[in-house]
Design brief:
The protein is mostly helical and 142 residues long. Helices cover 75% and strands 0% of the residues. It contains five helices and no strands.
């Protein structure tokens, strides 16, 4: 069984790697978390809240890593080997994408994203899931 600490740290590592992909491939536009901060906490342009958005994004990623380890325990899924960790991590990335795209982007942020943006959003969440799955599958901090 994967420890909660391993999941939290794995979530942080996965979020950092996901963020590198986002910054490299996604351009310099504010992340959805900066849009969230601008809309619900601040009162300025989302670009003014890049730091707050990144901190919020990191927190989401850390918490999601913990939820992953709790979930695999509850459902009795094996992530003790690299292959199974990658499989369930990839599935979790899809699940996170669906939740983020449907709930956060459409309902909370009321965005009408272009298909290219949605595709990149999916890709970034798959990167997160693969890294988290590899982390747990390699039993790092298990």
């Amino acid at each position: 069984m994967v420890s909660l600490i391993s999941g939290l740290v794995g979530g942080l590592v996965a979020t950092i790697i996901m963020t590198v992909f986002m910054m490299t491939l996604g351009g310099d536009s504010p992340p959805p978390t900066a849009l969230f901060w601008s809309k619900y906490v601040g009162n300025g342009d989302p670009g003014e809240y890049m730091m707050q958005g990144m901190v919020l994004h990191m927190l989401y990623g850390i918490i999601a890593g913990g939820v992953f380890t709790i979930g695999v325990g509850i459902f009795g899924l094996s992530v003790a080997r690299l292959g199974s960790g990658l499989l369930w991590g990839l599935a979790y990335g899809v699940l996170l994408f669906i939740g983020a795209a449907v709930f956060w982007m459409n309902i909370v942020l009321d965005l009408d994203a272009e298909m290219k943006i949605v595709g990149m959003f999916l890709f970034f969440h798959l990167v997160y899931g693969v890294v988290l799955g590899a982390w747990t599958g390699l039993n790092i901090l298990a």
